[in-house]
Amino acid sequence: MEFILAYLFGILLQFASIYPMNKEKGEMHALIESFKADAISLIAFEVGKFGWMAIAHFVLFQTPPEPTSPVYWFIMQIAMILWFAKSYPANAWLIKKGIKTAM
Predict the structure, then answer these.
(1) Which one, 2, 45, 55, 65, has least CB within 10 Å?
(2) Cα–Cα dist 74/51, whole Å
(3) pTM assigned to the model
(4) Interatomic CA distance for residues 5 and 11, integer angstroms
(5) Cα–Cα dist 81/13, whole Å
(6) Would you call 87 exposed, middle or buried from its count of C-beta atoms within 10 A (0-12, 13-18, 19+)?
(7) What is the dihedral of CA 57, 63, 64, 65, to 10 degrees?
(8) How far apart are CA 94 and CA 37, in angstroms?
(9) What span, in angstroms and rounded, lies between the C-alpha atoms of 37 and 103?
């Protein structure tokens, strides 16, 4: 469910930036471009996120830390670094190919 909501929200944000720049091409064109721009970067982001959380959950801890624990938030900080490391190359490639616009 989290992935679906993140994907829909990402497409909405992409559409909000793509459509005003290309109104003459229409809403459908902006929607398709939004899907293309968000799919690869979000999948790369989620692979990094779920991969690290699986390692933390199944390998590092017998019992996963509670969200109220400082350990949990430390793990999330490591996850943020890994998410960035996974999604940055994907976004750089999308910009290089002209699928995504550099901001």
Answers:
(1) 2
(2) 16
(3) 0.64
(4) 10
(5) 22
(6) buried
(7) -150
(8) 7
(9) 13
- In angstroms, rounded to a whole number, what is the distance separating the alpha carbons of residues 21 and 25? 9
Residue keyed to tokens 């993140």? 6
Are 89 and 39 contacting, i.e. CB atoms less than 8 angstroms apart?
no
CA distance 61 to 30: 44
Neighbours of 73 (CB within 10 A): 11
How far apart, in whole angstroms, are the C-alpha atoms of residue 71 and residue 35? Answer: 36
What single-letter amino acid sits at 8? L
pLDDT digits (tens, 9 = 90+) for 32-52: 888 887 888 888 888 888 888
| SS3 at position 79 | helix
- DSSP secondary structure code for residue 57 in this structure: I
3-state class (DSSP) for residue 11: helix
| Residue 70, pLDDT score | 94
